[in-house]
Design brief:
Layout lengths: L3 E11 L5 H13 L29 E11 L5 H13 L5 E8 L3 E8 L13 E7 L7
Antiparallel strand pairs: 1-2, 1-3, 3-4, 4-5
């Protein structure tokens, strides 16, 4: 059996009402600029819940853009996956982002991106990453 890796998470943006439509438009464009899954990239349009450009009733203050995908042992190319994800984040408005990487051999890793102040502005480079690792099960001797 091949090693399966599951990657999922969300990008959150808390937009002021006056700029909400522009922020949604920019974030939508960034996600639509990703390649399609047919091209077998690490990140593809199909793995994201791409936001609409108009206000949607039922949403409160935070726009939650979730994503997820299944890979064959992506942890061996995790630096490349992270670089592509951070490139996407660099082109978006957001206040936080979380990625969960579940692997069969290495356990679960949670990566969190945060910004200083009121949120990330495209092109600002204002990103801090934190990683937590957990492993279920114990050692058997």
């Amino acid at each position: 059996m091949d090693q399966e890796s599951i990657v999922y998470g969300c990008i959150k943006d808390s937009a002021p009402l006056m700029a909400e439509a522009e922020r949604l438009r920019v974030n939508r464009h960034a996600m639509l600029s990703l390649p399609h899954a047919d091209d077998w990239p690490f990140l593809s349009q199909e793995m994201f819940a791409i936001p609409q450009t108009e206000y949607r009733p039922g949403h409160y203050q935070t726009e939650v853009m979730h994503f997820g995908a299944s890979y064959k042992a992506v942890e061996y190319e995790w630096d490349s996956w992270l670089a592509q994800f951070e490139d996407l984040l660099s082109r978006m408005f957001w206040v936080s982002a979380t990625v969960h990487l579940e692997t069969e051999l290495s356990g679960t890793h949670t990566f969190t991106w945060e910004t200083a102040g009121s949120g990330h502005v495209p092109g600002s480079g204002d990103m801090k990453i934190r990683c937590e690792w957990s492993r279920e099960g114990g050692f058997s001797l």
